[in-house]
Amino acid sequence: MRSDRELVILNEIAQALNRSIDLDEALQTTLAQVAALLDLHTGWIWLRNERTDAFYLAASQNLPPALANNPARMEGWCLCLESYEGGDLEGAANIDVITCTRLKNLIKGTDGLRYHASIPLYAHGKELGVLNLASQDWRELSADDLRLLYTVGDLLSIAIERARLFTHRAQGGAVEERNRLAREIHDTLAQGLSAIALQLETADALLETTTSPERIRHVVQQALQLTRSNLIEARRSVLDLRATPLEGRTLAEALQELVQETLTKHSLALTLHAVGGHHPLSAAIETGLYRIAQEALTNIYTHAQATQATIHLICTPAAIQLIVQDNGRGFEPDQVTHDRYGLTGINERVRLLGGQLAIESAAGAGTKVAVTIPL
Question: First vs last Cα of the chain: how many Å apart?
Answer without folding.
Answer: 38
